[in-house]
Specification:
about 270 residues, alpha/beta, TIM Barrel, 2 domains, 8-stranded parallel barrel, 11 helices, about 40% helix, globular
Length: about 270
């Protein structure tokens, strides 16, 4: 299979091919999902919640994002690898935004970066894309804005708010983003944005009319206990399987059944 690139992702929208995306934060899961043929791997700041145990994505640092991006890239994925710019890495100044986007590419190996915001971040997107670093936008329910939104709430149900999101989508595209994540918005609004956009839309809790979909890998595997949003489909529940394996190991060690001669050196 050919390596996925920015041009090939753009071509998928033009050809009407659905784009698949999943988050990943480490080497072994990246190897597995890439072998399945996923198109985009997002090294999300969701790592702070599903791996590090934080309540929000806000504590995640640049160093942590670089570390996890490096781990993903060591799997040499065929998928396009996009890494999140964490909170405070791009909001302070354009210089900071450029520097940190560059760090994710130079030190982490990312092939593109993602940031949250619409009209308010258009200048930042433009500044980063002018460095020839591809940017994926993200509007709607933006987790880094959780305090302003008062929690993880659907955005765009009111017409005024929906029009603002339409403006956000236009601003992100005009600033040079190659794709746009739509999170936590009504399906009809997502359809309107997708129809108007010249770049691919990637939905998460935005209904079936986006050009592609993304979910958090721990959610679809049943490994996130903190929350279970309506838009998540659990494809398998690994918790009882892992629990059984760990319990069996503990029992065998305590009983002396493990290790056997077959697990020992002579």
């Amino acid at each position: 299979m050919k390596k996925k690139t920015i041009p090939s992702i753009l071509a998928m929208k033009a050809d009407g091919d659905r784009i698949t995306a999943l988050t990943s934060y480490d080497y072994p899961l990246t190897r597995i999902m890439d072998s399945c043929g996923v198109d985009i791997i997002l090294v999300g700041d969701s790592v702070g919640v599903v791996v590090a145990g934080h309540e929000t994505t806000l504590p995640v640092t640049m160093e942590e994002m670089i570390y996890h991006t490096r781990a993903v890239l060591r799997a040499q994925p065929r998928a396009l690898v996009v890494a999140d710019l964490p909170f405070l890495s791009y909001q302070i100044s354009l210089d900071e935004a450029r520097r940190n986007a560059g760090r994710l590419v130079k030190e982490g190996g990312a092939e593109a970066v993602k940031l949250e915001g619409g009209v308010n971040c258009a200048g930042t997107i433009r500044a980063i894309t002018e460095m020839d670093i591809p940017v994926m936008g993200h509007i709607g329910l933006t987790p880094q804005s959780i305090h302003r939104m008062g929690g993880y709430k659907v955005q765009g149900r009111e017409e005024e708010q929906a029009e603002r999101l339409m403006d956000d989508a236009r601003a992100v595209e005009e600033a040079g983003a190659f794709a746009l994540v739509l999170e936590g918005i009504p399906r009809d609004l997502a359809r309107r944005i997708t129809a108007a956009a010249g770049i691919p839309t990637i939905g998460i809790g935005a209904g079936p009319h986006c050009d592609g979909q993304v979910l958090v890998i721990h959610d679809i595997l049943g490994l996130c206990e903190k929350y279970s949003p309506k838009f998540v489909k659990k494809y398998v529940d690994l918790r009882p399987i892992i629990t059984e394996a760990v319990t069996s190991y503990l029992d065998e060690v305590r009983s002396g059944e493990f290790p056997t001669k077959g697990h020992s050196f002579h």
